[in-house]
Write a structure and sequence with these properties.
CATH class: Alpha Beta
Number of helices: 3
CATH superfamily: Hotdog Thioesterase
Helix content: 10-25%
Shape: globular
Number of domains: 1
Strand content: 35-45%
Strand order of the largest sheet: 1-2-4-5-6-3
Oligomer: single chain
Largest sheet: 6 strands, antiparallel
Order of helices and strands: HHEEHEEEE
Structural class: alpha+beta
Length: 141
């Protein structure tokens, strides 16, 4: 079955929605790709993203993953909140590198959605793997 195409109006709405998110702006996280059920976020790792070891703080990668998955749900025209999330930290991301997260929907249910996200460094090395369940607040279209 072919996935539905994402309307340009939906893409523009999503870019505006995430551009206006103060926490993402504070962290300098940007939405760089939107497809139906799949979203990519990018961030240059700066000093304020790191912990005392000079690597990205786990909360920053959690934010990237959670936001990428929530945005993937929004790209299916559903407003959601996170019910649970599991993270596996595989590799550290040092200060000065570029990081990106790709979130995708793997179950698009009426009341719940299941997503996964992966966070990579600029060398395309997998650093964090996540899976989460989301509660559907409402369908937007």
């Amino acid at each position: 079955m072919e996935e539905p195409k994402l309307a340009e109006a939906t893409k523009k709405h999503m870019l505006s929605f995430y551009h206006d998110n103060p926490f993402l702006q504070y962290l300098h996280i940007n939405v760089t790709s939107i497809e139906y059920g799949r979203v990519r976020l990018d961030m240059d790792v700066q000093h304020e993203h790191t912990n005392v070891y000079g690597i990205v703080h786990g909360g920053v990668t959690m934010t990237m993953a959670d936001t990428a998955m929530g945005a993937a749900c929004l790209a299916c025209n559903k407003q959601v909140v996170t019910l649970d999330c599991t993270l596996s930290f595989i590799r550290a991301i040092p200060e000065g590198l570029h990081a990106y997260a790709v979130g995708k929907v793997i179950h698009n249910g009426e009341h719940t959605m299941i997503c996964e996200a992966e966070v990579y460094d600029e060398r395309d090395m997998l650093c964090v793997k996540t899976q989460a369940t989301f509660f559907v607040l409402k369908e937007l279209c």
